[in-house]
Amino acid sequence: MTALRLVCLIVVVTIGLVHSLDIPKIKDVPLLVKTLKNLNRGPPLQVMTKRVNVQEKWITQKLDNFDASNSQTYPMRYLVNDEFQTEGSPIFIYLGGEWEIENSMVSAGHWYDMAEEHKGVLVYTEHRYYGQSVPTSTMSTDNLKYLDVKQALADVAVFIETFKAENPQLSNSKVILAGGSYSATMVVWFKRLYPELIVGGWASSAPLLAKVDFTEYKEVVGQAFLQLGGQKCYDRIENGIAELESMFANKRGAEAKAMLRLCNSFDDQNDLDLWTLFSSISNIFAGVAQYQSGNDISYNCDYLLSFNDDATAIANYVYWAWGMGTCIDARYEGSVEYYLWGVDNFGASRPWYYQTCNEYGWYQSSGSRNQPFGTKFPATLYTNLCGDVFSSQYGNEQININAANTNEYFGGMEPDVENVYMTHGALDPWNPMGHGVEQGATLIANASHCADFGSIKSTDSEEMRASKEKLAGLVRQWLA
């Protein structure tokens, strides 16, 4: 692929991403937030080959499932495709995560194909505080106390019981769940907390271990570029970022700022600004690796290797990927201001960042030397952001306690569940936080995050097809 063609590809992907994420247009999205949005978007849209009648419906949920004295409620949105429904149809529920639900997941793909085989009803539930299922008038820190995975799992339990009660044909139906990424984690944990409500589940790319300093993530991103792009590409990334770091450290900051097209407001003497910049650089590579398929990485590497020197290659690559502004605003304070603006603006990613501070961590840091993205984005960047955005109570110590509490409650790497099929891409940067082959999960060679939701097709790798067929066999057993 030519350098020009790749630049066009990056630009198209960036513009399409901004559109698909429905980013609020009245406030520019700061650099770090924009790259994090990309990493936390929903599963890949499925290609719909026919018109399907998907119904949008609502269910009344309690605001607090664990406080009998609180009578407040909110409307939770869900989507239904009942084209195959008959008496006793099994219920195939795809769980929404930190995104807005959409029609394709109940209209096409492997989940849809299995529902068709078993004459199942397809449902897609929306997670509280995401999409249109917003329980409170603002997303103030106080209002976000009703946002955690225990509440969301209780919502799913209430949904299953209510949906069956309101549909006489389905009163005795078996239920299976599916999810991707965070919602895959929910599938596992739902089976742990409410085993009697479902007969099985499919968890694609489920992180199970809450961890504040998630150093392994960028290691796998680096391995993806090494394996699929080659040693020269890996070295170019490592050397180019190291050179940019050195320029800032050795009084050549003005030169580095010019190369990266940074706005004058960027303060290269401020650690938080530098950490924000280098985290955002690394996240561009992470976004490519996390969602790669086909020759994506080799195309990107072709572009990187088309330049004569390392730092110039990195600077030009990230500038195009960031959207080619007149200048790039990489200030830390911009992220703080944006998340604070999100108190009254619901499209601004504030809920998921709150969940990371309150439950998981999963901050993808530069704490490992076994990755090519430098040393300038410690987990401290993200824990500082928690405190500045939500409350001073969210300091590093408290966030570590929160993650430890999550692991204790849900079992960490030992969730103790049966009849849940876990799959991971072998090059998915999230897979170190989930089960491996030794725990019974399937790792799909060269695949990445949530890569296995498509229908079985001739272009699937041998490993991908085998995993999809194994799942189809398990679903037949669960529904027998």
Automatic annotation (TrEMBL):
<dbReference type="GO" id="GO:0006508">
    <property type="term" value="P:proteolysis"/>
</dbReference>
<dbReference type="GO" id="GO:0008239">
    <property type="term" value="F:dipeptidyl-peptidase activity"/>
</dbReference>
<comment type="similarity">
    <text>Belongs to the peptidase S28 family.</text>
</comment>
<protein>
    <recommendedName>
        <fullName>Serine protease K12H4.7</fullName>
    </recommendedName>
</protein>
<dbReference type="InterPro" id="IPR029058">
    <property type="entry name" value="AB_hydrolase_fold"/>
</dbReference>
<keyword id="KW-0378">Hydrolase</keyword>
<dbReference type="InterPro" id="IPR008758">
    <property type="entry name" value="Peptidase_S28"/>
</dbReference>
<dbReference type="InterPro" id="IPR042269">
    <property type="entry name" value="Ser_carbopepase_S28_SKS"/>
</dbReference>
<dbReference type="GO" id="GO:0070008">
    <property type="term" value="F:serine-type exopeptidase activity"/>
</dbReference>
<keyword id="KW-0325">Glycoprotein</keyword>
<feature type="signal peptide">
    <location>
        <begin position="1"/>
        <end position="20"/>
    </location>
</feature>
<keyword id="KW-0645">Protease</keyword>
<dbReference type="Pfam" id="PF05577">
    <property type="entry name" value="Peptidase_S28"/>
</dbReference>
<keyword id="KW-0732">Signal</keyword>
